[in-house]
């Protein structure tokens, strides 16, 4: 297989979520001297973007997104250390966690996979993350974006508690805040003072990129 064939196969196999084949093709590409960037930006990311587009059109559902994301995740495990060595620029750093009192993580994990696929450096704090843990992690990692995830209506008020903790620590203006999860709406995100909201994983990636772009433009003005 030549480089073009490998890229096409990587795209196709990621789309259908064939993890073992994606891993095999990734290693084959590296053996043939292909760069991690080429495989990522010319095959894997476009494939995951297509998955997102199909999800938005209603042609794909959550299971298809999960298996495609998982297939891509396997390739990323191989490519990530190599990308770090070449100093490839990331789209930004995204700190993520499910709020205190909530143990749901499927949606959060799917967003993480999509973000990583889009070139973000993702730091996942896991579930049941207390406000003070978010504060400490923001101070340590200095992310561009922090994401609060809630699956239960009963844990959604933690968004406000987290925002208050950021405010108190003097961090609110230093980070973009995004919120999401099954019961969350744009109205609720506005009410708690978040910068962004997304209804699903592919929308989260687009919104995060938009918000970072806006902030960078504002910083140069």
Automatic annotation (TrEMBL):
UniProt keyword annotation of Coiled coil present? no
Q: Name one Pfam family in it.
A: B12-binding_2
- Which SUPFAM superfamilies has this protein been placed in? Cobalamin (vitamin B12)-binding domain, Methionine synthase domain
The record's section on Gene3D superfamilies has: Cobalamin-binding domain, Methionine synthase domain
Q: Which PANTHER family match?
A: METHIONINE SYNTHASE
The family database entries (InterPro entries) matched by this protein are listed as: Cbl-bd_cap, Cobalamin-bd, Cobalamin-bd_sf, Met_Synthase/Corrinoid, Meth_synthase_dom
Identification of the protein by name: Corrinoid protein
Q: Which residues are in the B12-binding N-terminal domain?
A: 1-91
**Mind listing the UniProt keywords for this protein, alphabetically?**
Cobalt, Metal-binding
């Amino acid at each position: 297989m030549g480089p073009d064939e490998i890229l096409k196969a990587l795209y196709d196999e990621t789309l259908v979520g064939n993890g073992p084949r994606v891993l095999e093709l990734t290693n084959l590409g590296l053996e043939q001297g292909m760069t991690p960037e080429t495989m990522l930006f010319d095959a894997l990311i476009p494939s995951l973007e297509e998955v997102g587009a199909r999800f938005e059109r209603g042609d794909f559902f959550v299971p298809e997104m999960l298996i495609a994301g998982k297939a891509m995740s396997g390739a990323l495990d191989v490519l990530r250390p190599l990308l770090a060595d070449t100093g490839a620029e990331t789209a930004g750093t995204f700190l993520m966690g499910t709020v205190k009192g909530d143990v749901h993580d499927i949606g959060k994990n799917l967003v993480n996979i999509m973000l990583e696929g889009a070139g973000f450096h993702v730091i996942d704090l896991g579930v049941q993350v207390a406000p003070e843990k978010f504060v400490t992690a923001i101070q340590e990692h200095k992310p561009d974006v922090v994401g609060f995830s809630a699956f239960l209506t009963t844990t959604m008020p933690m968004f406000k508690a987290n925002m208050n903790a950021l405010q108190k620590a003097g961090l609110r203006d230093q980070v973009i805040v995004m919120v999401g999860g099954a019961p969350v709406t744009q109205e609720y995100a506005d009410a708690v003072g978040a910068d962004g909201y997304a209804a699903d994983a592919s929308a989260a990636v687009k919104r995060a990129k938009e918000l970072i772009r806006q902030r960078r433009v504002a910083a140069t003005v």
